[in-house]
Design a protein that fits this description.
Layout lengths: L5 H8 L2 E4 L6 E4 L9 H18 L4 H8 L3 H8 L7 H11 L3 H5 L11 H15 L3 H22 L33
Antiparallel strand pairs: 1-2
Length: 189
């Protein structure tokens, strides 16, 4: 499997080499507002975000710990940045808090939702709105987005258009989960 070179990948993603004391060797991270957040700071921000999500729901630590099958003391270590969360534990926390991954992770890792603060805010607000839609409405929205994407492709290849759709991000092809994938002879939605 060829793929891009390591150097090209680093350049394409805007990664920067840093020495992270928690990891003990050079790693590559994406700068946020011109600086790279090291693991310890990121873990601290995730812990704070987790505590804030629990507080918004007015849930006692003991209740959340019980739902996770942990002692209160062990759970408290996550909120106080003593223990690091695994991805599996983070998913479980989202389940028992009724929280979205965006609620927990968007504050500490804002750059994963947009290159600018405005872009991140727009995408996060869109995701929040999408979560409230029923399946039929989501299908309609996806159809609209696919239409916008196809118009963007036509416009960028020299077709007629006002250029307004050129700023729309490229969306991956999504297959209808009820109809099966393209390998079954069904076209994407």
């Amino acid at each position: 499997m060829a793929g891009p070179s390591l150097e090209q990948w680093i350049l394409d993603l805007g990664l920067q080499q840093v020495e992270d004391p928690q990891i003990g060797k050079p790693i590559y991270r994406k700068p946020i507002d011109g600086r790279v957040i090291l693991s310890a700071e990121l873990e601290g921000q995730i812990s704070s975000s987790l505590r804030e999500a629990r507080d918004r729901r007015r849930l006692a630590r003991k209740k959340v710990a019980t739902l996770l099958g942990l002692s209160e003391r062990v759970y408290e270590r996550y909120e106080n940045n003593v223990s690091r969360l695994t991805v599996g534990r983070l998913v479980h926390l989202c389940e028992v808090l009724g929280a979205s991954p965006e609620e927990i992770l968007s504050s500490p890792a804002r750059h994963l939702w947009g290159e600018t603060e405005t872009c991140a805010e727009l995408l996060l607000a869109s995701i929040e709105k999408l979560r409230s839609f029923d399946e039929e409405t989501l299908r309609d929205v996806l159809s609209l987005l696919n239409h916008i994407e196809s118009q963007t492709t036509i416009d960028s290849n020299g077709g007629e258009g006002d250029g307004a759709a050129l700023a729309a991000p490229s969306l991956p092809s999504v297959v209808d989960p009820l109809q099966g994938g393209a390998e079954n002879g069904n076209a994407p939605v």
